[in-house]
Amino acid sequence: xxxxxxxxxxxxxxxxxxxxxxxxxxxxxxxxxxxxxxxxxxxxxxxxxxxxxxxxxxxxxxxxxxxxxxxxxxxxxxxxxxxxxxxxxxxxxxxxxxxxxxxxxxxxxxxxxxxxxxxxxxxxxxxxxxxxxxxxxxxxxxxxxxxxxxxxxxxxxxxxxxxxxxxxxxxxxxxxxxxxxxxxxxxxxxxxxxxxxxxxxxxxxxxxxxxxxxxxxxxxxxxxxxxxxxxxxxxxxxxxxxxxxxxxxxxxxxxxxxxxxxxxxxxxxxxxxxxxxxxxxxxxxxxxxxxxxxxxxxxxxxxxxxxxxxxxxxxxxxxxxxxxxx
Length: 326
Prior knowledge:
The protein is of the alpha+beta class. The protein has 11 helices and 9 strands. The longest helix is centred in the C-terminal third of the chain and has 23 residues, at 281-303.
């Protein structure tokens, strides 16, 4: 980013207004997320850097994200001492947070490389095992949090019912213009399958746990350390956190293939075996995965988020009603 760009970027101007002694060597703006703009400042110095070389400032771009940000900050403070992976810990919180509003907030950058499927494939067996253990341990820790007390108790219920309603709306209006009849049949099948799963979720014994709810490659990072130490997992973007079926946190892991999902599950200590007549954890995860794929297609058509090739590829990969096996 050039000096001229920095001078006209409202996000940079907002950071400078609140933290006037913060100096940075480079700034990168990303609008990859659906509901936030992220500003990445590298080479930070000055008193307002508070000893951190690289900072990430997140700016909500819609009213829901704006309202949720103070609670997300509070939840991440709560999680910091309860999980063994790196999660954002907000060090820069403008005073308006105390008044219920928060234009933006910043945290020291989570280190590592984005955990793409290609990076996973390049890891040594030792690193891969450690990574699976860390993800399994993270999910185990999240899914046993007390959901009856603050701040976890104020996390909203799962968003799948709203996502299903939206997908049905777009299926009725927009999808017939771009899908074949066979693809429309798959979309209807997904909606029916998800509706049946959601209708059953209120049954006795179905756990309701704290979910990250968007555990996918775009939010996972792997910091390779030394030859002796295999590395450390980092997880970002808890904006979509909610209370729901633990299977939902396994859905995004199918980006890495079913073998890796099985490896993670081997390190998970939550309830895996279903009640009589209930789909098992990974079958439910695959159903949520299929809903996400259809939702991404619908969101692209209605709002232009994601690219059409990305949305189509995920839908095509998720068409089978049977979850893929290792």
